[in-house]
Amino acid sequence: MEAGVRVDTSGALCPVPILEIAKAMRRLAPGTLVELVSTDRGLEADLPAWCDATGNTLVRMERRGAHYVGWVRKAG
User: Fold this and answer.
1) First-to-last CA distance in the chain?
2) CA-closest candidate to residue 56, choices 70, 69, 38
3) Is 65 helix (H, G, I), strand (E, B) or coil?
4) Cα separation of 26 and 71, whole Å?
5) CA-CA distances (angstroms) from residue 35 to 31, 53, 55?
6) What does the alpha-carbon distance between residue 28 and residue 41 come to, in Å, rounded to a whole number?
């Protein structure tokens, strides 16, 4: 899946991955696809909850070994 922006928060724990994707989203145009990479397993619950709260769309979530990867499309 080809994302317009990749945010890699590997090695950081909650709440850093969500804070970093939120920061990235603020400067992007609506419809932009963002790939978030994390080693924090909490991302599996945190990212869908954040998308629900903000209106952004969780396109896909997957696990790649020790990494959790989510693709989010900016609302608007």
Assistant:
1) 20
2) 70
3) coil
4) 16
5) 13, 18, 17
6) 26
User: What is the tens place of the pLDDT at every residue in 50-66?
Assistant: 999 999 999 999 999 99
Query: Domain 5-74 has what CATH class?
Result: alpha beta
User: Residue 63's CB: how many other CB atoms inside 10 A?
Assistant: 11
pLDDT in tens, 16-35: 999 999 999 999 999 999 99
Which residues sit opposite 69 in a β-bridge? 37, 62
pLDDT at residue 3, rounded to an integer: 87
d(CA 9, CA 13): 8
Are 67 and 38 within 8 A, CB to CB?
yes
Beta bridge partners of 8: 37
